[in-house]
Automatic annotation (TrEMBL):
Homotrimer. Residues 1-28 form the signal peptide. Keywords: Signal, Transferase, Urea cycle. Catalyzes the second step of the urea cycle, the condensation of carbamoyl phosphate with L-ornithine to form L-citrulline. The urea cycle ensures the detoxification of ammonia by converting it to urea for excretion. It is an enzyme of class 2 (transferase). The gene is Otc. Its EC number is 2.1.3.3. Pathway: Nitrogen metabolism; urea cycle; L-citrulline from L-ornithine and carbamoyl phosphate: step 1/1. This is Ornithine transcarbamylase, mitochondrial. Belongs to the aspartate/ornithine carbamoyltransferase superfamily. OTCase family. InterPro entries: Asp/Orn_carbamoyltranf_P-bd, Asp/Orn_carbamoylTrfase, Asp/Orn_carbamoylTrfase_sf, Asp_carbamoyltransf_Asp/Orn-bd, Orn/put_carbamltrans. Residues 195-348 form the Aspartate/ornithine carbamoyltransferase Asp/Orn-binding domain.
Length: 362
């Protein structure tokens, strides 16, 4: 098809290309990809649930990180407005309080033109005043997706089974996938690539460690994890992580010695020793975790390019000020990246958008 104007015959495809270049230039968004068309990916996540990274391939997780980098670049650095979620609403169920999960999700979803609806235990009682099945069906009729921050992973599984919309795990007793996406984006930005990095976990065998174990090997990352005796990760998750390591040619080391886990590690990682719901165990846990504080002594046995991650909130017994506030600490970029990664999750599950930014090297 050609368009004729003032006696000139111009192919319609060329006109569209010129129009895109012009609009992209005026918006400051042209990325130099041919005619400016978004880079197309073979990965399609629309309509999926995100309950655990166990259910996603390395390529699919890479896609979410690529999309995170794309949105961050276009919105934060280029100043573009991308109403990709305009007209869509998100139900946010919070059985556990949060700073980063709530702020990142509310501000991120709204920034993309959507409407987030925050629901606490005062607003919605999962499985108490109304069954999980009924709640799932009601939410499916009124919202486009649900992010749930809950105590039990089994509640998320039921919500996902009974819902006709995507369900996203905002945290559970077993997994915290959206935190790990932010961690990986932070490391990608700092190191330029994830492949070959050694992650050194020093702390509790909790939902954060479980999520790392379900994904690190898929990027070619090694994992060395130290937990006190009696606080090891779930045996079933360890078994699956061993399988992933074997399939991807990576190393998985489980130990009770913090310095053994830190030795040669590129990334020192810890988390709270006392999660919400474990307050009665505080005295017992503090005793069990003696010697697990991350300090410069810990860093001395790490790799020369070591960095530090903590998903926050942080307590001094977990990591001292010298490490936490050092130039090697990435905790605050890590916190900010919670926003860009959750935005990418929502866009990937609810739209057909493809990134414009060149795909990073993973």
């Amino acid at each position: 098809m050609e368009t004729s104007h003032l006696g000139l015959s111009v192919p319609r495809s060329l006109l569209l290309c010129i129009l895109y270049l012009f609009t992209s230039a005026t918006r400051g968004s042209f990325s130099g990809n041919g005619c400016g068309k978004p880079l197309q990916s073979q990965v399609q996540l629309k309509g999926r649930d995100l309950l655990t990274l166990k259910n996603f391939t390395g390529e699919e997780i890479q896609y979410m990180l690529w999309l995170s980098a794309d949105l961050k670049f276009r919105i934060k650095h280029k100043g573009e407005y991308l109403p990709l979620l305009q007209g869509k609403s998100l139900g946010m169920i919070f059985e556990k309080r949060s700073t980063r999960t709530r702020l990142s999700t509310e501000t991120g979803f709204a920034l993309l033109g959507g409407h987030p609806c925050f629901l606490t235990t005062q607003d919605i009682h999962l499985g108490v005043n109304e069954s999980l099945t009924d709640t799932a069906r009601v939410l499916s009729s009124m919202t486009d997706a649900v992010l749930a921050r809950v105590y039990k992973q089994s509640d998320l599984d039921i919500l996902a089974k009974e819902s006709s919309i995507p369900i996203v795990n905002g945290l559970s007793d077993l997994y915290h996938p959206i935190q790990i996406l932010a961690d990986y984006l932070t490391l990608q930005e700092h190191y330029g690539s994830l492949k070959g990095l050694t992650l050194s976990w020093i702390g509790d065998g909790n939902n954060i460690l479980h999520s790392i174990m379900m994904s690190a090997a898929k990027f070619g990352m090694h994992l060395q994890a130290a937990t006190p005796k009696g606080y090891e990760p779930d045996p079933n998750i360890v078994k699956l992580a061993e399988q992933y390591a074997k399939e991807n040619g990576t190393k998985l080391t489980m130990t009770n010695d913090p310095l053994e886990a830190a030795r040669g590690g590129n990334v020192l990682i810890t988390d709270t020793w006392i999660s919400m719901g474990q307050e009665e165990e505080k005295k017992k846990r503090l005793k069990a975790f003696q010697g697990y504080q991350v300090t410069m002594k810990t860093a001395k046995v790490a790799a020369s390019d070591w960095t530090f991650l903590h998903c926050l909130p942080r307590k001094p017994e977990e990591v001292d000020d010298e490490v936490f506030y050092s130039p090697r600490s990435l905790v605050f970029p890590e916190a900010e990246n919670r926003k860009w990664t959750i935005m990418a999750v929502m866009v990937s599950l609810l739209t057909d958008y493809s990134p414009v930014l060149q795909k990073p090297k993973f």
